Amino acid sequence: MSFRDVLETFDNPFPQRNYVIETICPEFTSLCPKTGQPDFGTLTISYIPDRRCFELKSLKLYLQQYRNHGAFYEAVTNTILDDLVAVTQPRWMKIVGAFTPRGGIRTSVITEYTAPDSPPTQSPR
After folding, report:
1. 11, 25, 39, 53: which one is catalytic?
2. What is the pLDDT of residues 17-52, one digit of tens each?
3. What is d(CA 6, CA 83) in angstroms, rounded to the nearest whole number?
4. pLDDT of residue 86
5. 3-state DSSP: the chain helix, strand, coil percent, rounded to 5?
6. Higher model confidence: residue 19 or residue 1?
7. Domain residue ranges of the chain, discontinuous segments joined by +
8. H-type helices in 1-103, by residue range?
């Protein structure tokens, strides 16, 4: 399931430059598909934009749609990456989903994208 249509973008004011935008979303919530209980986490989205940047209010509205959506951490984090890559087409993007402990176990999901036409480099972060 994708909530991609909610996301809005704007022109990168410095497309000639490689720079990292980091957005931290400390109140992310989704539902555990097994128990129906809420899962809480912090999403850190880092990216090097090409021509488009995502607009923050639309990102907030997009992420809020996961509050009633049941999915495992891995699916949520990778789907968010896929959706953000689709609308911004960045040179590079990384998402870290750091979820609060459940049953004494803490999980982080780290997923990354590099544009095929971007020169191979080490992750900026």
Report:
1. 39
2. 999 999 999 999 999 999 999 999 999 999 999 999
3. 10
4. 98
5. 25, 40, 35
6. 19
7. 3-114
8. 56-64, 73-88
Q: Quote the DSSP letter at residue 119.
A: P
3-114 carries CATH number 3.30.1130.10 = yes
- Tell me, yes or no, if 82 is annotated catalytic: no
Q: What is the pLDDT of residues 73-108, one digit of tens each?
A: 999 999 999 999 999 999 999 999 999 998 899 999
Q: Collapse the DSSP code of 40 into the 3-class scheme (helix H, G, I; strand E, B; otherwise coil) and give the result.
A: strand
Residue closest to 124 by CA, chosen among 60, 49, 65, 46: 46
Set 32, 82, 83, 117: catalytic member: 32
With contact defined as beta carbons under 8 Å apart, do 7 and 84 qualify? yes
Model pLDDT, residue 40:
97
Residues in the chain: 125
Q: How far apart are CA 9 and CA 74, in angstroms?
A: 25
Active site annotation includes 25: no
